[in-house]
Amino acid sequence: MSETIEALPVKRNVPDADERVEVTLTIPRRKLEKLHAFMSGDTWEKAEAARNAKLSECVKSAAALLNTARRHLGTSGGRVCATVLASLYNGERVKFDLSDLRGLDMELFEHTINTMRACYELRMEPHQFFEDGSRLFEEMIETWRLEKKRRRL
User: Fold this and answer.
1) Is residue 84 part of a domain?
2) In-domain check, residue 36
3) Which of 52, 59, 73, 85 is the most buried (most CB within 10 A)?
4) How many domains is the chain partitioned into structurally?
5) Residue 117: C-alpha distances to residues 1, 2, 36, 55, 110 (Å)
6) Predicted structure pTM score
């Protein structure tokens, strides 16, 4: 389990660019010129590029957590990283106690927050950031014995 796992490139789920939507906007007449300038400029595209760059870094944080979970068996940091990822992967099977975040160093804490942001913004589960991610996450859950046995009713 010592090989380094790399995250896949970020692919944002974007609606069909040719799909038309109708928008009604009411603004003061004095701001109409400002709106036209915004709509004809590249401000949105520049902001989108910045967001995508940040999301790429966030996805790399998921790789840092996964690699920590795979390399630091038997440590509390490794267990926390594994549990965070497993809970984001399938929260019904693996529960995460937020107070465990206090056991992480600052770097792993930032990677955790970035990973959650990537999952939220991209509307993806963390295993989707990796080639053969389902297998990697299932192995991690089994290795760390994270899945709780369900009680029979």
Assistant:
1) yes
2) no
3) 85
4) 1
5) 26, 26, 32, 8, 10
6) 0.73
